[in-house]
Amino acid sequence: MLSKLRVAAASITLVLAFTGTVAAQAADMALRNGAIYTLDTAHPWASALVIKDGRIAYVGDEAGLKPYLPGARVIDLHGEMVLPGFHDAHIHPMSGAMRLLLCDLSGAKSPEQLYDGVRKEAATGNPWVFCNGVPDALTAGIDGAKLDALVPDRPVFIRNATGFKGWANSKALAAGGIDPDGIGPEIRGVERDPKTHKPTGVLDDEATNLVRGKVPPPTETQYREALKRATAMANSFGITSLFDAAVSGSMFDAYHAADQAGELTVRVVGAQLVDTRRGLDQVDEMVKRREALRGKRFRPDAAKIFLDGESAEHTASLLAPYADMPDSRGPIIPQDALDAMVQKLDAAGFLIHMHAMGDGSVRAGLDSIEHAMNVDGPQDRRDQIAHVGVVDPADIPRFGKLGITANFTSIWFQADDEASADTMRVLGPERSQYMFPIGSIAAAGGRLTAGSDWPQLTLSPLDGIQYAMTRQPLDGSKPPLLPNERISLAQAIAAYTRDAAWVVHEDKLDGTLEVGKAADIVVLDQNLFKVDVLSIHKTHVLLTLLDGEPVYRAPQFTWP
């Protein structure tokens, strides 16, 4: 359904920087006759909202709106829904959009189409042939020999959508320090021919990172262009705030330059990527970078630690061996080194954000933060463990007890999803009962936030909300994955708004619709509380405001 919004009255330029309670006076914009879900626990619903100088000046009923109307732009919502702007609490905007700008293989429907994409990229003459987005359905049969035949004179490296699996030709292997003749040292994640011991060109996890690290990085200019594309996409989905879960290299310069130039149409908290091959000295560098690059809408205030990889690829860290690989628990996390790193980051005031898919890595992350708490004493911590792919039952209540937020990616909550099926197979039936246990974590007092992990399949928070509520495909065609772990609509919305704002220290600024907060607002064409849950993903974003300024308007929405 498209909106019946009607807009009248004059336009007044919106400006920033108002704080505090606003006395009744002429406003810049007034929204009326709406279903305004504020996320303010004291006053969760309203029908009218006023914006003045980029801040919310009034939230309440129609009766209190009259003093603000003269000279204001008035939007009659006709019952449409208003929410705080969505937060994506775990996303890779620059690297994701860069994949779209550069060689993208995600649209390939056959091996020949995939190889055609590689040939086209080789024809550009770039010193490396680097492509992303290899569809999972086409991975069988790709190897280094085929890539050598396609491009014999330059390194070729292609990756799947997650970036955890890759394929390299001989020159790319050599560039990454992997001897193509099989003579060099053993490296985790290098598939080898069982007879010759030579690398096949198929790479996982650590080996993928070795080769990826040799691909020439994008320039600051390229990253800024990618950022513009990513943030425009985010705005179209009602997103006003992002948590970039892995910032490194030229990305910092691109963010800082875009912020200084006023190009950012979202607020961004960046997680500086911790190099696990380095020691504690990097924390001092991270502090200097944080202080130097903090700006109006970009703050590199977080630290990202990869604790493991992916369960289906046997690179997640488990407490007990894999069901199909009884001699392996995945990578073993050196707890002492992790404790020391987390404690130093904690003492320096970083927001700690950890990737953890296995129950072993989840426990290691919880233990390391608890260690920092014991060493550093009380402070305002807002740390997160992202993905929580599988959690041991004993660790579920620790999220609430320790005040550690569980950051989930609900697109993975599907029993019929190929990756989920592979994960259940390698975990075994008993351990699979604790996959993505966000309902249990919430019931035990834990806080939840939500992210897309884009460039995963969807950037839409509305899709994510529905997945979290149903744990089914969007069309409901398959049974839910662990239905007892579903969460409510109110919980899902909070994970994308109020709680996501809190976890990055934005709770005084946004995340709820309250007087004095920034007018970061999304207008939807249907009330999520009044539609069937399987229709949530069909909802259209009509308008996105950041600091009261429109950063996205649907084509059907007329703006005078």
Description:
With 560 residues, the protein is of the alpha/beta class. Helix content is 29%, strand content 21%. The strands form 4 sheets. The protein has an 8-stranded parallel beta sheet with strand order 9-16-17-18-19-20-21-22. A hairpin with a 4-residue loop joins β12 (156-160) and β13 (165-168). The longest helix has 18 residues, at 359-376. Residues 1-22 have low confidence and may be disordered.
Spell out the blueprint of helices and strands.
Blueprint: E1 6-8, E2 29-32, E3 35-37, E4 45-46, E5 48-52, E6 55-60, E7 73-76, E8 81-84, E9 86-91, H1 93-101, E10 103-104, H2 111-122, E11 129-134, H3 144-150, E12 156-160, E13 165-168, H4 170-175, E14 190-192, E15 199-204, H5 205-212, H6 220-236, E16 239-247, H7 250-260, E17 267-273, H8 281-293, E18 298-306, H9 335-347, E19 351-356, H10 359-376, E20 384-387, H11 396-402, E21 405-408, H12 418-427, H13 438-443, E22 448-450, H14 461-470, H15 489-496, H16 498-503, E23 521-524, E24 541-546, E25 549-553
Parallel strand pairs: 2-7, 3-8, 9-16, 10-11, 11-12, 16-17, 17-18, 18-19, 19-20, 20-21, 21-22
Antiparallel strand pairs: 1-7, 2-5, 3-4, 5-6, 8-23, 12-13, 13-15, 14-15, 23-24, 24-25
Helix pairs in contact: 1-6, 6-7, 9-10, 14-15
